[in-house]
Amino acid sequence: MKKRVGIIGGGAAGLFSACLLKKFSGNEDIDVTILEKNSVLGKKLMLTGHGRCNITNRKNASELKNGYHEAGNFLYPALKEFGPDDVISFFEKELGLRLKEEDNNRIFPVCDSAVAVRDTIASYISDRTKILCDSNVLDIKKTSGFEVSTSQGNYSFDYIILACGGKSFPKTGSTGDSYRFAERFGHSVIPVSAALASVKSDPVSAVMTGRLSGVSLTANAAVYCNEKKKASVCGEMMFADFGLTGPAIMELSREIPPDITDMSIWIELDLIPSMSDEQFDLEFQELIRDHPDSKIATLLSGYVPASVAHEICSASGVSDLYAQSFTKENRKKTVKEIKHLKIGLDRAPSLETAYVTRGGVSLKEIDRKTFCSKLVPGLYIIGEAVDIDGVSGGYNLQACMSEAYLATLDILGMS
Ligand SMILES: Cc1cc2nc3c(=O)[nH]c(=O)nc-3n(C[C@H](O)[C@H](O)[C@H](O)COP(=O)(O)OP(=O)(O)OC[C@H]3O[C@@H](n4cnc5c(N)ncnc54)[C@H](O)[C@@H]3O)c2cc1C
Q1: What is the pLDDT of residues 197-222, one digit of tens each?
Q2: How many C-beta atoms lie closer than 10 Å to residue 300's C-beta?
Q3: Is the pLDDT of residue 28 over 90?
Q4: Do 4 and 159 meet the contact criterion of CB atoms below 8 Å apart?
Q5: Which of 262, 281, 293, 387 could serve as a FRET partner for 117 with CA atoms 20 to 30 Å apart?
Q6: Smallest Cα–Cα separation from 395: which of 3, 68, 37, 91?
Q7: CB-based pocket (< 6 A), ligand 1
């Protein structure tokens, strides 16, 4: 009997599923349909990697899994079965899209175009997949198979791949419908919040971050909630008009609770993370002693960009001071500002602009060897819909592909 597979959502996870179903079904007669509510496929995919699409990250599975926080172990079998090398080989050999490696093992297409990635995939699947855009799925019911009603009509399938995304960047179509459908099937959904998002500072801190807008540096950023340090990330960050952004801040954002009302919360920046407070203080004392005629801001410019040094001096009340008139109290205050710069937060990071969703369909109810629901046979849940989020660098698209692979093999009876 012909297998009828309905893929709900024509984003990254849905498109990869269609690709792999075509590749591995061989001569088997299967009927694959993508139901996508937008008028085009892969709206989010076309924005990835600043329009260049960071497809994956070339690391082995045991290293790669560390990029998926609490879900790393759950995802490990999928990463082992279909990891970055398999993805690279699939893109180059099967899709004919040449790839290149950049810093930190990040893999991009040679053409630097996420639109080309989407187009190549769409063209590859076109002969074996019915692509129905402008088809908003309204409901999915379990019968002997599945009955799906959409804004364009009703369809019957034997298998469903639920791939309608999370709740981040909703203007691309991912508005949380996956959760609604999964809950209707009895699945639990871990509350969602923003991950890989920029952070908006409170109006007081925004004056300073605004003056430094565009300046980037390496810092250790730590989030404090009610006086307690919750998490920290060391890496590249950038000041912005609205607050803070850049890889380290975006990675830290998932640790900020979704509701910060009535909470004392701030991000503390150590702008010289290569030295402890004591090491820096000692070195700073020597500098002050050896360069009495230098301005303090000039001495600090040896450690951080000049504009940052000026802001630190201004926050410490030592803007115009020369080293010779710098007191111990001045030094203590300056060391505190540069090693523990407090940026107050206005509100939690927003899902509207977050790259990824934290939370989603609970992993407890999904078989990690197939990504099939443990509650509903024939229902596969993959992509950002599930409670997995990765760091930046190609991890999130890799997760979509590894999960799509396991679901595909199971549907084809090959797992
Ligand atoms: C700006 C940006 C840049 C990014 N860059 C990278 C990167 O370079 N590398 C990386 O690994 N990750 C990146 N990510 C993350 C990555 O894009 C996502 O993790 C990935 O797209 C998730 O795929 P998905 O298929 O699960 O969801 P989506 O890509 O969101 O696709 C879900 C699809 O389902 C459709 N849909 C939703 N509800 C329904 C419904 N009821 N009926 C029919 N269709 C429906 C939506 O319209 C959408 O097309 C980036 C994200 C953003 C926002």
Answers
A1: 999 999 999 999 999 999 999 999 99
A2: 26
A3: no
A4: yes
A5: 387
A6: 68
A7: 8-14, 35-38, 43-45, 47-49, 53-54, 136-137, 163-165, 169, 172-174, 177, 355-356, 383-385, 394-397, 400
Cα(402)–Cα(405) distance, integer angstroms: 5
How much is the pLDDT for 398? 98
Please tell me the CATH code under which domain 198-349 is placed.
2.40.30.10
Q: Encode pLDDT of 285-339 as tens digits.
A: 999 999 999 999 999 999 999 999 999 999 999 998 999 999 999 999 999 999 9
- How many Cβ atoms are within 10 Å of 374's Cβ, its own excluded? 12
Q: Which of 7, 34, 39, 44 to mutate to test the pocket of ligand 1 (most atoms within 8 A of CB)?
A: 44
Q: Which CATH superfamily is domain 3-193+357-411 in?
A: FAD/NAD(P)-binding domain (3.50.50.60)
The total number of residues shown for the chain amounts to: 415
> Rounded distance, CA 87 to CA 44, Å?
19
What are the start and end residues of each CATH 2.40.30.10 domain in the chain?
A: 198-349
